[in-house]
């Protein structure tokens, strides 16, 4: 189904939101889960390293992007100065031509002998010589000024060329860094999803893979289940993928995106098999339940109390899923079939999706 609305997904926010993983197998059983997998800790450690590398590279990328913007501004400033200097040189050349033409019209090109023969008196000859001397000085000054301007222009052109070359080099470095980040993230996501697929196929959860929690200073008691997203399949929509109407709201997000508890509550269900794949159900005060399905990892245990905005898992594409997304439901009981439309439910609590 085509997305309904888009939400901004900045590259840096996406990378930094994928936090460091520290795998910690637990022994808290659930009626829908099996034992912890033996390789979970090793895989979690490797995924954590990949995400750490990506986060550090992202910091360098952002710093480099700011430096590139500063270099671009400097190069554009130099280009502006060059254009001004070129206009000034054009004016100097025009002045030099005007002085030369005036001197030629006034006889400045005559030899001294001819000037002596044509002069009516010594006084006239002296006046002519003073005028010609002043004209020669003006020409020499104009030539010197023009040469200095041209030399300055050549120096500034070299500086501008260096600035643009530095900018091109920085942009090439940023492109390579961005490519490296994307490759590391893809490796981490595929590894994470591979482990999740194995757990979902076995119907056995590996235990909570703890996420380093971000600072949570929410003004509201309720939040959206993911920070950045594209809304896709809506509540009650139909299609070949479902035998009945769609029971929740889908959020299209990449594999590994942190999934948040929309409000404070208690973990009442963790399951890793079936149509929903890896899923979590929370019970909230007031008698409502929220479900988070098709996950790639689970970061909480059954019976655990969670806070608003706490990262409880990571999105994926386990179970009956056609692509990476979070399936989110609001229910009046923990079981499927008691769902209400999540969009107006969240809106009534101050969370508007879109």
Task: Summarize this structure briefly.
The protein is α+β, with helices and mostly antiparallel strands and 354 residues long. 47% of the residues lie in helices and 16% in strands. A hairpin with a 6-residue loop joins β7 (265-271) and β8.
Describe the fold and architecture:
By secondary structure, the chain is an alpha+beta fold. Helices cover 47% and strands 16% of the residues. Strands 1, 4, 5, 6, 7, 8, 9, 10, 11, 12 and 13 form an 11-stranded antiparallel sheet that branches. The longest helix is centred in the middle third of the chain and has 81 residues, at 122-202. It starts with a strand and ends in a 7-residue tail after the last helix.
Number of strands: 13
Query: What separation lies between the terminal Cα atoms?
Result: 16 Å
**Which parts are unreliable, with pLDDT below 50 for 5 consecutive residues or more?**
1-42
Query: Can you give the helix content as a percent range?
Result: 40-55%
Topology overview:
Elements: E1 5-6, H1 11-17, E2 21-23, H2 40-105, H3 112-118, H4 122-202, E3 209-211, E4 230-231, E5 249-252, E6 258-260, E7 265-271, E8 278-284, E9 288-298, E10 305-306, E11 311-315, E12 326-331, E13 339-340, H5 342-347
Helix pairs in contact: 2-4
